[in-house]
Q: What sequence folds into this?
């Protein structure tokens, strides 16, 4: 009976197995568009690709076909120019004006069409300010004392409208050695919120954020902090927030969330922003 039980166990386990036949949903091909407009740019890039089936071989990618497209500013239509891996249109052909709406239309010879509109945010002075704070932390005899360098940034919000922002920064240090070229070090600075609504403003309609430098600027001959504040469309904010939730969820059992899209007849994002910045010299 001992040996019989040994041989019977795999049979019992196999009897508990169930097989489920997975049927992939029918694939509907759509154009995927990604483009971000800003008057500060010198070249406007439009990526046009195709969505892909849920199950496909890695060496086979759905082709969007031959693409034609236009950007309409309400008075004229300007064609997209195919260059390299994407499509372009330039300020020489069309000027981007704050407060104005632009419509992108894309068509494929496979019968696919997609369309979206973007309205450039209103241009205004955000009155950016940068301050610094240096804090020495004691190692209490276990570790060496170490210095934390904090970058405090604030800017103004217009209380008469709903605004959305994206904030980032950069630390740049220059070090010249005798007989050698100048060494340039650049580091991206991340604030506690990269994409935010104007609900963070205080009673003075100021939005305040902080970030930190990971290395000492004292090592360099000269060093600078640059803060970039983008006043964006709501669609810009919603797209990037959905992208963060899609890629950065800590819960493996959370419900899958689709990426935000404002493309009619397709997928992706067509949106805009206004850029303001301030450079602060540390030394």
A:
């Amino acid at each position: 009976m001992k040996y019989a039980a040994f041989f019977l166990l795999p049979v019992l386990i196999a009897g508990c197995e169930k097989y489920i036949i997975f049927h992939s949903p029918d694939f509907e091909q759509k154009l995927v568009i990604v483009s971000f407009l800003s008057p500060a740019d010198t070249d406007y890039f439009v990526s046009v690709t195709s969505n892909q089936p849920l199950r496909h071989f890695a060496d086979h990618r759905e082709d969007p076909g031959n693409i034609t497209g236009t950007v309409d500013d309400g008075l004229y239509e300007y064609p997209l120019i195919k260059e390299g891996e994407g499509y372009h249109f330039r300020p020489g052909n069309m000027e981007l004006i704050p407060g104005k709406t632009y419509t992108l239309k894309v068509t494929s010879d496979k019968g696919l069409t997609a369309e979206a509109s973007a309205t450039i945010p209103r241009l205004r002075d955000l009155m950016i300010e940068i301050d610094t704070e240096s804090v020495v932390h004691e190692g209490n005899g276990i570790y060496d004392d170490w210095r934390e360098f904090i970058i405090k940034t604030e800017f103004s919000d217009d209380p008469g409208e709903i605004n959305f922002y994206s904030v980032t920064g950069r630390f740049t240090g220059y070090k010249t050695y005798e007989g050698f070229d100048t060494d340039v070090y650049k580091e991206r600075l991340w604030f506690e919120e990269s994409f935010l609504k104007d609900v963070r403003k205080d009673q003075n309609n100021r939005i305040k954020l902080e970030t930190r430098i990971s290395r000492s600027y004292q090592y360099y001959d000269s060093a600078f902090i640059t803060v970039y504040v983008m006043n964006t469309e709501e669609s810009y904010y919603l797209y990037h927030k959905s992208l963060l939730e899609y890629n950065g969820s800590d819960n493996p059992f959370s419900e899958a969330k689709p990426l935000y899209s404002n493309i009619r007849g397709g997928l992706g994002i067509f949106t805009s922003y206004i850029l303001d910045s301030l450079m602060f010299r540390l030394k």
User: Anything to note?
Assistant: DSSP finds two helices and 16 strands in the chain. The helical segments are 2-15, 234-248. The chain has a mean pLDDT of 85.
